[in-house]
Amino acid sequence: MKKIIISAIFVAMLVCLSDIHDAKAAWFEPMKIHFLDVGRADCMFVQMPNGENILVDGGDEHDAARIIEFLQGLGVKTIDLVIATHPHHDHIGSMDEVLETFSVKKIYMPNLPYDTSFYHDLFKVINKKKIPVERAVAGTSFRFGFSAKAELLAPGASYYKYINDYSAVLKITHGNNKFLLMADSGVAAERELLRSHQDLQADVIKVGHHGANTGTTMKFLKAVSAKTAIISCGSQNPNAYPSNVVLGRLAQLNMTVYRTDQLGVITAISNGRSIRFKTNGF
Ligand SMILES: [Zn+2]
Description:
Blueprint: H1 2-28, E1 31-35, E2 44-47, E3 53-56, H2 64-73, E4 78-79, E5 81-83, H3 89-92, H4 95-101, E6 103-104, E7 107-109, H5 117-129, E8 133-135, E9 141-144, E10 148-154, E11 169-174, E12 177-181, H6 187-196, E13 204-206, H7 218-224, E14 228-231, H8 244-252, E15 256-259, H9 260-263, E16 266-270, E17 275-279
Parallel strand pairs: 3-5, 4-6, 5-7, 7-8, 12-13, 13-14, 14-15
Antiparallel strand pairs: 1-2, 1-16, 2-3, 9-10, 10-11, 11-12, 16-17
Helix pairs in contact: 4-5
Signal peptide: 1-25
Organism: Fictibacillus macauensis ZFHKF-1
Protein name: Beta-lactamase domain-containing protein
């Protein structure tokens, strides 16, 4: 009997020790957020320290090959979580082909049926592969092991005047480092976030709506108080994004700005304490 009890204690200690080891390993593993170069569109891929991943948006109509090649280059076979921030073509344009290529566990999107070919194509794949769809709504959170989590801060309401304001806003935390991905949120969404009393502070902000002057207000930037801004934009676009007004605000706050049109793919690498950036060019 004594022997059995001692063996049981020994096994319990081993289990405990392996848990501590895993927790430590996850803490020291980096978290990477890749901001893909998809022109005036959005596509981000997050590699969590526990090995899971998130795809945020799926580029525009002709970006599928570029996105798929990038993910395959990272050795991705399964995408754990997909977030389609809102149904505009520059966010879901190539998502159908990406979902077709990889195994996908779950997709979150705002409750906003949208009558376009892109939306219908996306749902054709979702239905064919029976991918579970959940409603993206503020307050939803996801844990990735011991050191990382992701939370949806928006949308908080069920109706907005502009489709961009339905954007799923994602805050990712790894250790002490925080990243705020604004999708295409405009002034109304920013106002709602400010009123929500959620913790908006972040080290890095992926600026809303490709840097257009439809948001990224001074009041909002001050509340977030990020040191670094990422802008996903194309070099030649008729809308002249990013706007000089927005760039002026970022400069006024002495923020470092990384733009996909100038640097290609931008990767933020977090070790839980500090963040370094890697780009295509250097
Ligand atoms: Zn957009």
